[in-house]
Amino acid sequence: MSIGQIREDLKKLAKLAANVSDAHTCVIFLPTGLLTSGSPLKTLENSPPPHIPSSILANNDTIELKKIFQLGPELTIGSIEMVAVQSLSTSVVRDCRIQVGNGLLGWVSENSRSIHVAPFDMDSSVLGIYSETESLKSLAAVPIPMPAENSNDRNFSGVLMCDSKKAFSFTKLQIKHLEDIATLISRLLYWTVFKKEATSTESSWDSFLTKTSQLGDAIGQDSIEIVRVHTETFAELEAAHGISVAVQHSEQFVRLIQQALPPHFPMVRLPNGDILIALDNMMTAFFQNKIRTLANHINEHAKPFGIRVQNFSARASRGRAFDIDAILRAIPALSTSSVTKVVGGNRA
User: Fold this and answer.
1) Is residue 29 pLDDT above 90, yes or no?
2) Taking phi first (over 0 means left), then psi (-120 to 50 degrees means alpha), and beta for anything else, what does residue 318 get?
3) Cβ pair 32, 78 in contact under 8 A
4) Are the C-beta atoms of 294 and 253 separated by less than 8 Å?
5) What pTM was computed for the model?
6) Maximum Cα interatomic distance, the chain, rounded to a whole number of Å
7) Over 60: is that where the pLDDT of 199 sits?
């Protein structure tokens, strides 16, 4: 099944969710990059967290919603993007992106917990999906579990959200229907995206070389830099926590990097565990910092997790044609070749 077909199915599920809940707007958010989008993303990641009134309740639960809007950009572990929407509004910001941990929807994604807000007495702009004010009366949002081999493999969920302009709360049955639809979305992703991801050759060596060469054709060979990431503390991690935990967190690190990279920057994992990423040299420093931040996040859950990051310039290889061996034999840039021992810090 193609990405386009998956998106069409998600649109149908969004319409179904809107119908069963009698919603004004229903949106589906998934981790950014899970489905490749050809349209530019209208990112909300750097938007300051808005204020949330202390009167908000979530299913009459003891969830500390006051913390929802207190998570700054340095604390998040990724972002979610709108992949399907069914709405009666003309002010929906389609293809928007929301930082995990920021706002109501970001909170649901980070904590994998449902919320039901009624009455909804905030400005609709706090949701990050409307360009104009909507007079909403209630809202329900449920997490969409991301398929994985174990529960710790992925750090945040997708989100299925429905809001309403009618002066009543969503019923328990309606919320149950939304949770069932979220489960269907999760299963759809498992069979169409994650199973394909596990069996495809998209991250093979030949594919990496082909995509890196194509990147060079697009931006110029001299503009390519290869970033090499080596996990230095795998043996120590295994000794401290066991081989299963060491493998689990190493694979989690790889997935977090994949989620952080745009699709046009190829990545491959070598048999020895090293990760190679081809980047535009204008973006190298940004992504190196992101990779170190992700390693810090892993280290918070399983110490010690230390990495070494190096970058190699295609320009330094002095070859006329793209030659990966010549690039990796060149002397790495001194500014980024030092060992990065991750010993703590903020979450990615």
Assistant:
1) yes
2) left
3) yes
4) yes
5) 0.52
6) 69
7) no
Q: Which string of DSSP letters, residue by residue, matches 205-267?
A: HHHHHHHHHHHHHHH-GGGEEEEEEEES-HHHHHHHH-HHHHHHHHHHHHHHHHHHS-TTS-E
* 3-state percent breakdown (helix, strand, coil) of the chain, nearest 5: 40, 20, 40
Cα 254 → chain centroid: 12
**C-alpha distance from residue 314 to each of 290, 317, 323, 328 (Å):** 22, 5, 8, 9
Matching residue, tokens 């174990």:
150
Nearest-angstrom CA–CA distance, 88 and 127: 16
Q: How many residues does the chain have?
A: 348
**Would you state the pLDDT for residue 222?**
85
The pair of structure tokens assigned to 341 is 């021992």
Residue 212's Cβ-side half-sphere holds a number of Cα atoms within 13 Å equal to: 27
Q: Give the pLDDT confidence score for residue 342 in this predicted structure.
A: 38
How far apart are alpha carbons 346 and 348 in whole angstroms? 6
* Residue partners of 202: CB distance under 8 A and separation at least 6: none
Q: Please state whether 344 falls in left (phi above 0), alpha (psi between -120 and 50) or beta.
A: left
Q: Mind listing the pLDDT tens digit for each residue in 278-320?
A: 999 898 999 999 999 999 989 888 889 999 999 898 876 655 5
**For the CA atoms of the chain, what is the radius of gyration?**
22
Indicate the SS3 state at residue 144: strand
Place of tokens 């995990």: 100
Q: Which two tokens stand for residue 258?
A: 């994949």
DSSP, collapsed to helix, strand or coil, labels residue 325 as: helix
CA distance from start to end of the chain: 32
CB-based contact 281:225 (threshold 8 Å): yes
Which CB contacts under 8 angstroms, 24+ apart, belong to 200-208? 203/267, 203/268, 203/269, 204/268, 205/268, 207/266, 207/268, 208/266, 208/267, 208/268, 208/276, 208/278
Give the pLDDT score at 325.
84
User: Measured between alpha carbons, how far is 90 from 100 in angstroms, rounded to an integer?
Assistant: 25
CA distance 256 to 225: 20
